[in-house]
Amino acid sequence: MFQRTDVIESSLKAAIAALAGVAFLWVLYHHFKGSAARGARRANYLDQTKSLFEGGVKAVKPDGFPRISGTYQRHTFDLQVVTDTLNIRKLPVLWLLVTLPEPMPVAGTFDVMMRPRGVETFSRFMQLPVQIQPDPMFPHDCAIRADMAEAVPSRELMQRHVAMFQDDRVKELVISPKGLRIVWLAEEAHRGKYLLFRDAEMTLEPFQPHDLKPILDRLIALRLDLMTTRPESAT
């Protein structure tokens, strides 16, 4: 009797172990399947925006996110996606860095950062040595820095472009001798999933051309204004 019981217990243990092994393999399979799908979504996140460009190239960075370059309205733009998960008080986000890398007739770098927290790893903002008191026309929750006082554009010029900061998705504007950049909030992690499960998965939907086009147009308009306005420091 005891021997039969031992046999039954051994069989049950073997069956449980087999089921556990099957469950582990099932979880492992779906994990790798999900990882492959997430990798593909990341790599293709900007693909639909390529319809705006003539030609262009695409590269996938080591973190799996894309960087693309293409020509729009005769200007070559650089787009790259940067993840931000360092700010423990905010949801993880994706920043889209839209850069117009053309020489600009400015003396130095002028940087407007919305809601700065000191952890903007995508930016050199905190390294710029000159703190600028924002003009009242700028939003109250911005900070401005430059690498020299002479880098501050004229008030009249900035008045024509300050409206861009009315959109909460604009994070940063950089005007430098090497070009122009707008940093845009492309996506934010789902609050419920992140708070409950620490699920920060994004890129479920690709970034859309109709969201990118106004950013490109703003940079082109700012470039034209800089090129046709007499350089003048703000007072």
Could you walk me through the main structural features you see in this protein, from its secondary elements to its overall organization?
There is one protein chain. The protein is of the alpha+beta class and 235 residues long. It folds into 2 domains: 1-43; 46-228, no CATH class. 31% of the residues lie in helices and 26% in strands. It is built from 4 helices and 9 strands. The chain has a 9-stranded antiparallel β-sheet with strand order 1-2-3-4-9-8-5-7-6. The radius of gyration is 25 Å and the shape is elongated. The chain starts with a helix and ends in a 7-residue tail after the last helix.
Tell me the layout of helices and strands.
Layout: H1 2-43, E1 54-60, E2 66-72, E3 75-84, E4 93-100, E5 110-114, E6 130-132, E7 142-146, H2 155-159, E8 170-176, E9 179-188, H3 191-197, H4 209-228
Antiparallel strand pairs: 1-2, 2-3, 3-4, 4-9, 5-7, 5-8, 6-7, 8-9
- How many β-strand runs? 9
Query: Which structural class should the secondary elements be placed in?
Result: alpha+beta
Low-confidence stretches: 24-34, 190-199
- State the strand order across the main sheet: 1-2-3-4-9-8-5-7-6
Major sheet, described briefly? Answer: 9 strands, antiparallel
Q: Please state the average pLDDT score.
A: 82
Total domain units: 2
* Overall 3D shape: elongated
Residue share in helices? 25-40%
Helices and strands, in order, run as: HEEEEEEEHEEHH
Rounded to the nearest angstrom, the distance between the terminal CA atoms is 99 Å
Number of helices: 4
Percentage of β-strand residues: 25-35%
What is the alpha-carbon Rg in Å? 25 Å
